[in-house]
Task: inverse folding
């Protein structure tokens, strides 16, 4: 990071941060290294997604004598007791297929894994990103977001001093919106890979929470009741946001609504997790409106306020974060608007199985 030095009357040198306006000017003047990955909004229209059989690669790692052997030469630090690891000294781009299977299991068990110094991976480009993602499942094509031209499988987030191509709602006192990515799909994502190509000097962190720990905080009687419930997840509001001229103004696939269990089970670890989120969950099936609203409001409040279940990722150049959307929720923090700095990220989003609930829970309607 660039610095400037000024001298006070004491003649003691003081190091000051580069002013955000200077940082913004610098971004605008220099050729942007990742210009080929800027958001593109094609006018292609895609048919509805079709069901597919998902085989979780983490399951293959269960039979390995040491399913964490891919970390043997790395340094691993737990972010919190129940959520997240930070890893140094491992090049994700060079992982074997067996290593990727072990990675999937590690992310399933820890919910979130942060890898530092991954410039090799990031600089390999979109063809590599796609090949990486396909190891973990069928790649999701987002219905409304920007993507690098020719690569609709790569979901982009983008904001700078002049524009934003994100699903952001300004009429709120907070930018924190907990969600699990595109949970409205019949088969939402499992292991997800995300990294920033450009970032503000400070700010733009990402919050994560363990939906496994969130559930465990509740009383056994209440959890037993939640296991009997199913909820509607909807992509309609997100599509309407784009149809109103926001983001890129494009809807490439008609929005869907799907019913998922309120408590889902991970297919590899067997752990149960709460599966509702403020961004996409709309109502609990079979309950009256007031009943549904009060239960969901309580659960959203529980997610919002449970700092003891959360981890915060502070981005550094070369950082890649992987999380399991089946057992975590997350929120971007948009606290850098006034700086005008660029935040440009790419997400690789393989789909997984249809959420698994109790065997006797009918998810047909």
Result:
């Amino acid at each position: 990071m660039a610095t400037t030095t000024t001298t006070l009357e004491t003649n003691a040198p003081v190091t000051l941060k580069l002013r955000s306006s200077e940082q913004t000017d610098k971004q605008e003047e220099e050729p942007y290294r990742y210009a080929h990955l800027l958001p593109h909004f094609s006018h292609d229209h895609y048919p509805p997604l079709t069901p597919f059989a998902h085989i979780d690669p983490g399951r293959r790692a269960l039979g390995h004598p040491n399913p964490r052997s891919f970390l043997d030469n790395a340094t691993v630090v737990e972010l919190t007791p129940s959520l997240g690891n930070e890893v140094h000294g491992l090049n994700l781009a060079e992982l074997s297929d067996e290593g990727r299977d072990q990675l999937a299991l590690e992310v399933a068990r820890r919910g979130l894994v942060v890898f530092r110094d991954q410039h090799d991976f990031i600089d390999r480009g979109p063809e590599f990103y796609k090949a990486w993602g396909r190891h973990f499942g069928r790649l999701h094509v987002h219905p409304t977001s920007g993507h690098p031209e020719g690569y609709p499988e790569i979901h982009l987030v983008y904001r700078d001093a002049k524009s934003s191509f994100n699903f952001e709602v300004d009429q709120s006192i907070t930018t924190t919106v907990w969600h699990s990515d595109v949970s409205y799909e019949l088969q939402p994502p499992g292991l997800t890979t995300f990294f920033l190509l450009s970032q503000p000097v400070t700010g733009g962190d990402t919050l994560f929470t363990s939906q496994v720990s969130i559930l465990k905080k509740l009383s056994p009687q209440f959890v037993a009741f939640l296991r009997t419930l199913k909820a509607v997840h909807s992509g309609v509001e997100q599509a309407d946001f784009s149809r109103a001229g926001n983001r890129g103004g494009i809807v490439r696939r008609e929005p869907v609504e799907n019913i998922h269990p309120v408590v889902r089970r991970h297919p590899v670890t067997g752990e149960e997790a709460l599966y509702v989120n403020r961004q996409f969950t709309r109502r609990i099936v079979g309950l009256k409106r007031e009943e549904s609203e009060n239960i969901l409001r309580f659960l959203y409040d529980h997610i919002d306020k449970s700092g003891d279940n959360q981890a915060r990722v502070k981005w550094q150049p070369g950082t890649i974060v992987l999380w399991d959307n089946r057992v975590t929720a997350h929120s971007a923090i948009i606290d850098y608007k006034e700086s005008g700095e660029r935040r440009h990220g790419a997400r690789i989003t393989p789909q997984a199985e249809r959420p698994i609930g109790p065997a006797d829970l009918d998810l047909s309607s």
The chain has nine helices and 17 strands.
